[in-house]
């Protein structure tokens, strides 16, 4: 039985797969973030944070294209930021998974609705207001 057949999806509870996707995404994000935190603290053992003034993330942590090279260099802040990116991507992947499941089930009204939701989220992610 193929994963792209309607029978496969009818016999399995799609909500269970979606729940697992969300759970694993949060767990993976937590592991990455904790690992990044440990690396960051080990790289900056005597640094004392200043909580009186807010300083945003450095420029290199604001885009995925600049985060990945720093992750490969074991930059603790970049690894933490990657964990946050994975956490943000988790519900987006859930929506994509739902679109595929609805399409396989031939439930086209929900495919359209879910595509609209995905397009709104992606538009806000890529074209949102910058500070």
TrEMBL record:
Assigned keywords, A-Z: Membrane, Transmembrane, Transmembrane helix
Lineage of origin: Bacteria, Pseudomonadati, Bacteroidota, Flavobacteriia, Flavobacteriales
Name of protein: DUF1634 domain-containing protein
Organism: Apibacter adventoris
Transmembrane helix listed as a keyword: yes
Record has Transmembrane as a keyword: yes
Name of a matching Pfam family: DUF1634
TM region(s), chain numbering: 21-41, 78-101, 108-129
């Amino acid at each position: 039985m193929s994963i792209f057949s309607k029978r496969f999806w009818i016999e399995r509870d799609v909500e269970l797969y979606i729940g697992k996707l969300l759970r694993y995404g949060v767990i993976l994000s937590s592991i990455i973030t904790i690992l990044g935190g440990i690396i960051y603290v080990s790289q900056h053992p005597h640094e004392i944070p200043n909580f009186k003034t807010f300083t945003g993330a450095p420029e290199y942590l604001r885009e995925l294209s600049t985060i990945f090279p720093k992750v490969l260099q074991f930059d603790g802040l970049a690894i933490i930021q990657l964990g946050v990116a994975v956490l943000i991507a988790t519900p987006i992947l859930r929506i994509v998974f739902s679109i595929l499941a609805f399409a396989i089930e031939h439930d086209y009204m929900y495919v359209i609705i879910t595509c609209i939701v995905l397009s709104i989220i992606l538009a806000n992610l890529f074209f949102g207001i910058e500070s």
